[in-house]
Write a structure and sequence with these properties.
Blueprint: H1 6-17, E1 23-27, H2 33-43, H3 49-61, E2 72-77, E3 80-93, E4 99-110, H4 118-125, E5 132-135, H5 143-148, E6 152-155, E7 157-161, E8 172-176, H6 187-198, E9 202-208, E10 211-222, E11 226-234, H7 237-242, H8 244-252, E12 258-263, E13 272-275, E14 281-284, H9 298-301
Parallel strand pairs: 4-5, 11-12
Antiparallel strand pairs: 1-2, 2-3, 3-4, 5-14, 6-14, 7-12, 7-13, 8-9, 9-10, 10-11
């Protein structure tokens, strides 16, 4: 199916709805990135401009679906962005092998004087019914607003596990992914592992009796102290649960005792705890992400 040309659709909507205010909705262009980074820094004071620019530059350099905005949309007032919604579009492979388009609704901020246009910006930017839009970092105070925009919960919380405490499976070999070592993986998975490794993530392959399973983890520190690995990609979270002992020992050798992963309930195979205080995620569209697939999202592009 051919994608909707959003620049035309959104501009037409904005022109009809906002003829007097002098505010229009348009695509974010490369020339806007410095202004967008400054705007997001005002909205998210705990992030630096360098943080935003690094992620935007990484996204700009990677292959993206044709016919969709490179970075998302902004509210433009007199040529200056006064509001922004970052959309990270990707071609991803579904479980049946089909290529689908999805967009990570990464960050959304509007200057106080223009907040009346916030809902219009979100509706216009997420109107294509052929695309799956998903939000992986909604603040709790925005949950009701996100649901009113047509999004539904696909992930309720997270598991925090110590996989090294699980019994390893005999005959399993865990290695860090390297170019030329992708036998048993699809071309899509090889590219996924390579790109995430380039962004500083830990791309891993588990080999067992001729079967190869891919994993991507991202190391960070809680309160800048406690090291923890976040699961960004696997084929099935059941694979991580089954191979927890093997993966846990591998990660422990790289400075991480704990792993956190998206979940909708506790997993008895994992030593740890399940919480719904953090980790809720929303999606709308034909192909909601499965648990264990945060590939090509802000989590990988911005958080390293």
């Amino acid at each position: 199916m051919q994608p909707i040309r959003k620049a035309e659709t959104v501009s037409d909507t904005a022109a009809q709805a906002q003829p007097i205010a002098g505010v229009r909705i348009r695509e974010i262009k490369t020339a806007d990135l410095a202004a967008v980074a400054a705007l997001l820094t005002r909205g998210f004071a705990f992030r630096s401009e360098a943080y935003w620019l690094r992620g935007l530059e990484r996204h700009a350099a990677r292959p993206r679906p044709v016919g969709f905005p490179a970075f998302g949309y902004c509210l433009d007032h007199g040529g200056v962005p006064v509001g922004v919604i970052l959309l990270l579009f990707s071609n991803v492979q579904s479980e049946d092998g089909a290529v689908i388009v999805r967009a990570n609704v990464s960050s959304w901020y509007v200057e106080p004087a223009f907040r009346a246009f916030s809902s219009m910006l979100v509706r216009a930017a997420t109107r294509d019914k052929t695309v799956t839009y998903f939000n992986i970092t909604p603040a709790p105070h925005t949950w009701s607003q996100v649901e009113a925009q047509g999004f539904s919960v696909y992930c309720k919380g997270q598991i925090y596990a110590a996989p090294a405490l699980s019994r390893p499976v005999a005959g399993v070999v865990i290695d860090e992914f390297a170019d030329g070592a992708g036998n048993g993986l699809s071309a899509y998975e090889i590219d996924l592992l390579r790109q995430h490794a380039d962004w500083g993530c830990l791309s891993v392959v588990a080999r067992e009796a001729g079967v190869v399973r891919p994993f991507v983890f991202q190391k960070h520190h809680v309160k800048n102290v406690l090291p923890i690995y976040r699961l960004l990609y696997c084929r099935d979270t059941a694979d991580l649960a089954r191979l927890a002992g093997n993966l846990g020992r591998f990660l422990l050798g790289r400075g991480g005792l704990l792993v956190r992963l998206d979940a909708n309930a506790a997993m008895p195979e994992l030593v740890g705890w399940y919480s719904e205080k953090r980790g809720r995620k929303y999606a709308k569209g034909p192909h909601p992400p499965r648990l264990g697939d945060l590939a090509f999202t802000e989590a990988a592009l911005f958080d390293r």
